[in-house]
């Protein structure tokens, strides 16, 4: 029986993880659940899964939640608050695996703490690795932690690697990664019409059910840019060996091209329970609850090269990883500010890459040698991006 801590339990990944846990209650026990402020869903999860600890980051919401729990059938649950408590529950002795599913930079410190503590880290938060890069991978190596990717693309690549592969190793026989992307909701929309895109249109992903921020990232293809940076670190490959491929059907989740000409692809329905179950059962397999892929329903599969004029955020991510140092952290911070401003209808959809690029131009690619340097760059980039948003406010 393994103890699991789910960072971001009320998000789409957290909900899917708990679905898989419920199918394998003989193998996993929920030790801790965390949420920012969605205490209604968190309460329902507590009634079903009965964790030992709950963290509600928002302190006022945490007080409300503690009062509600105190008169419930699960009154023995310990309720914690504040961002610092995320690190506390991620490193508990009773926790074997940590599902890192907090969206954005907020997930960095607890995910890094889990890695330093030698936990099995189920990494769904790409921003943590994008920001801290070599610092994160060094923590995994030094602690002996297992790092298993949850993003459907990275999990697919991991599955296509040699049987004894561990994240961070160089697979010498693999010469190229083909990182697939759906192209999002605006793959064929005339570029001149993107200026009028609304938040509701941007979050309406054609294949995947994701949170609002990630859905916007998919629409701009920043999500794929962040995944490219993450892939460089997870699979120890230079960016020139990673090719982004638009595959609208989202049936092939990524591919690995080997030196002998073999290309291995991982396929399946677009259901996040598949990579979650793979990582939770690794190195074995168990049922995810996802429907089997009916290949006859697919009929055909299309592949396209990405248009960097349509998707400038992908270009900016490539530039950031090639520059190295703090630039991926700057890119990520500016993107988070720009996307939040778009969702709040302060700026236009086409302003997102403009805000990011202007922010990046304010920084040099200084070495990201320590966590303090990374966090300082993140903070400064947010300030810069916020000022640009103020200039652009509609």
Automatic annotation (TrEMBL):
The keyword Manganese applies. Belongs to the DXR family. Its EC number is 1.1.1.267. Keywords: Isoprene biosynthesis, Magnesium, Manganese, Metal-binding, NADP, Oxidoreductase. NCBIfam families: Dxr (TIGR00243), PRK05447.1-1 (NF003938), PRK12464.1 (NF009114). GO terms for molecular function: 1-deoxy-D-xylulose-5-phosphate reductoisomerase activity; manganese ion binding; NADPH binding. This is 1-deoxy-D-xylulose 5-phosphate reductoisomerase. It catalyses: 2-C-methyl-D-erythritol 4-phosphate + NADP(+) = 1-deoxy-D-xylulose 5-phosphate + NADPH + H(+). Catalyzes the NADPH-dependent rearrangement and reduction of 1-deoxy-D-xylulose-5-phosphate (DXP) to 2-C-methyl-D-erythritol 4-phosphate (MEP). InterPro entries: DXP_reductoisomerase, DXP_reductoisomerase_C, DXP_reductoisomerase_N, DXPR_C, DXPR_C_sf, NAD(P)-bd_dom_sf. Its cofactor is Co(2+); Mg(2+); Mn(2+). The gene is dxr.
